[in-house]
């Protein structure tokens, strides 16, 4: 597994040399943009619209727009100096917390952590301490010129670091438009919705879910590559014109209802009708 970062974890006086490895990977299918006439891949060149010249990397500087059309220019050496001042190649655990206290909206990207040379025993100690205490470590780390918050926990016998957003990076949910404030749901509607949830509840087995679009796209690419005939996929049954919330819920239940209802379910249904 490719190492993307080397450093150490520190908590108290304990220091653990570690390596980071990406825990997830993006499996999106990459498509190139081609010229329709000759099928040549298109180049994306950096051109100054005023000078009308193509720019080389040394011709480009970073800038922060403080007002419309007004920029503060930041030189590369200034950014490098700032990076050196903050980057110590250490993951410093600053607190220990309950993982359940963090809403999933804060989670960003996951990394596996492996012990570097001489760090196996301390790595094992931290792993066991986290398991025994049922806690997670809240840490700070500088990666890619950005200081990030991170959570360190145990996943499948391996230390896992998940970077998390700062509070000011999470947008205010109260600013989402058209969210209903009043609750005008009837008890019958709620009971029917809960029954539907009960029928659809199942243990989470991630291996049974697949990216259907990606699979179909690869089939299309393969059929074109090998010259096979294309097939038309089977279309889903059209949904009924359901305009009532109660009818929509009942229709969903009917679709998921087992062929033979259990006596318990029959009695519950009889009570609801009564």
From TrEMBL:
<feature type="domain" description="Ku">
    <location>
        <begin position="52"/>
        <end position="181"/>
    </location>
</feature>
<keyword id="KW-0234">DNA repair</keyword>
<keyword id="KW-0227">DNA damage</keyword>
<dbReference type="InterPro" id="IPR009187">
    <property type="entry name" value="Prok_Ku"/>
</dbReference>
<comment type="subunit">
    <text>Homodimer. Interacts with LigD.</text>
</comment>
<feature type="compositionally biased region" description="Basic residues">
    <location>
        <begin position="262"/>
        <end position="274"/>
    </location>
</feature>
<dbReference type="Pfam" id="PF02735">
    <property type="entry name" value="Ku"/>
</dbReference>
<keyword id="KW-0233">DNA recombination</keyword>
<dbReference type="GO" id="GO:0006303">
    <property type="term" value="P:double-strand break repair via nonhomologous end joining"/>
</dbReference>
<feature type="region of interest" description="Disordered">
    <location>
        <begin position="253"/>
        <end position="274"/>
    </location>
</feature>
<comment type="similarity">
    <text>Belongs to the prokaryotic Ku family.</text>
</comment>
<dbReference type="InterPro" id="IPR016194">
    <property type="entry name" value="SPOC-like_C_dom_sf"/>
</dbReference>
<dbReference type="InterPro" id="IPR006164">
    <property type="entry name" value="DNA_bd_Ku70/Ku80"/>
</dbReference>
<dbReference type="GO" id="GO:0006310">
    <property type="term" value="P:DNA recombination"/>
</dbReference>
<comment type="function">
    <text>With LigD forms a non-homologous end joining (NHEJ) DNA repair enzyme, which repairs dsDNA breaks with reduced fidelity. Binds linear dsDNA with 5'- and 3'- overhangs but not closed circular dsDNA nor ssDNA. Recruits and stimulates the ligase activity of LigD.</text>
</comment>
<dbReference type="GO" id="GO:0003690">
    <property type="term" value="F:double-stranded DNA binding"/>
</dbReference>
<protein>
    <recommendedName>
        <fullName>Non-homologous end joining protein Ku</fullName>
    </recommendedName>
</protein>
<keyword id="KW-0238">DNA-binding</keyword>
